[in-house]
Structure formats: structure tokens, C-alpha cells
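Now for a specimen:

…
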Amino acid sequence: MGYTFLVILWAISVYFKSKKNKLITVVLKTAFLALIYGIIIEVFQEQLTITREGDIKDVFANLFGIITAVILLLLIRPKLIKLKNRN
């Protein structure tokens, strides 16, 4: 659930602050960056700590949260576009 909320809040924030970017572009870029972030965290856990281990299952869990966020954002897309155009 953490990555779901991360991507939703991050994408909405970037979308409302940007002047030109389309919502789909923002959502896809945010999802990609969140996935890269999750992979980097897992690699760091494996390489830089003694008490933690990197796990591919965590990457897949993060990916599931990211996909969920993308689907939810696409479902509320018309409302987000309407809100942004109202300002």
C-alpha cells in the first residue's frame, strides 16, 4: 500500500504543479521513478547493511502497488483534469 500512496500523491502533486505535462505522462514517469527507487533501496539493503537483506519479492510487491496506483489514477483521470482546468 505504501507505494500505491507514494505514486498517487507524487503524480497528483507533479501534475498540478506542471504547466504543460499531460496526466498520463506524469503518471508513467512517476511510476517508473518509483520502481527505480524501490530497486535501488533493495540493492542498498543487500549491499550496505548487515541486518537487512534485499529481496526480489519486495520489488514485486512495490511493483504491484505501483500498478494499483496507475490504475486508480487512470480511473479518476477525468476528475483530475477537470480540477486542474478549473484553476
Remarks:
- The chain has a mean pLDDT of 94.
- The radius of gyration is 15 Å.
- The CA atoms of residues 3 and 65 lie 5 Å apart.
- The chain is about 85% helix and 0% strand.
